Amino acid sequence: DVKVTQSSRYLVKRTGEKVFLECVQDMDHENMFWYRQDPGLGLRLIYFSYDVKMKEKGDIPEGYSVSREKKERFSLILESASTNQTSMYLCASKGTGGTREQYFGPGTRLTVT
Amino acid sequence: DAKTTQPPSMDCAEGRAANLPCNHSTISGNEYVYWYRQIHSQGPQYIIHGLKNNETNEMASLIITEDRKSSTLILPHATLRDTAVYYCIVRVTLTGTASKLTFGTGTRLQVTL
Predict the structure, then answer these.
(1) Cβ-Cβ contacts under 8 Å, A50 against chain B
(2) DSSP structure string for chain B
(3) A11 class by beta-carbon count within 10 Å (0-12 exposed, 13-18 middle, 19+ buried)
(4) How far A33 CA sits from the closest chain B CA (Å)?
């Protein structure tokens, strides 16, 4: 059974803290994504990675960075958390091929106070 | 990506078939129809996709009309665990950041006893 796991389901952090969200997939997928999901705004792509150490900015990269040192792991970093980064964060992975589906992790609900 | 229209909500009795419609009248010839669902507070889950022909897998069936302007997702024997928001997406095969998923508002399916 395919699996995408995220390090935390719920996280509460203070404004200004550096936050690390970890995502691991066991499907040997080349492509990995970080989205955030907010009510009324749907899914928005933060960053995408198509290979180890390779990344591309998505639609809303400001305030975020990513790291992909190993194929199976894709980390999202909030350099200095702010209250407007309170959201549901979703990691996904996808194999090579345009029609391949994306597999999502369970999500991390981050609250920044 | 072509725009899709789905009813905001539907009810279905447990054990009955759930038929979820999607209109995509502006679909172009190279665009696929994808269905995902999202159970409350979980990550989205891929269900099925198709181009022209009807498709079936262990989760559902996808019926695409001959003119491809609409489709129906069928859950043959709905259970309470199928209660979720169902998203219909129409897209070409894409790679890189363009392979990001964009969800509309979807159909909230409520399965009842």
Answers:
(1) 95-96
(2) ----B--SEEEEETTSPEEEEEE-TT--TT-EEEEEEE-TTS--EEEEEESSS-EE-SS-EEEE-TTSSEEEEEETT--GGG-EEEEEEEE----GGGG-------EEEEEE-
(3) middle
(4) 8
Confidence of residue B95 (pLDDT cuts 50, 70, 90): confident
CA separation for the pair B98, B83 (Å, rounded): 30
Question: How far apart (Å, rounded) are the C-alpha atoms in residues B94 and A12?
Answer: 35
The arithmetic mean of pLDDT across residues A30-56, rounded, is 92
Q: Do A48 and B46 touch (CB under 8 A)?
A: no
B43 and A45 within 8 Å at the Cβ level: the answer is: no
| Amino acid (one-letter) located at B64 | I
Question: In the predicted model, what is the mean pLDDT of residues A17-35?
Answer: 95
pLDDT in tens, A51-74: 999 999 999 999 999 999 999 999
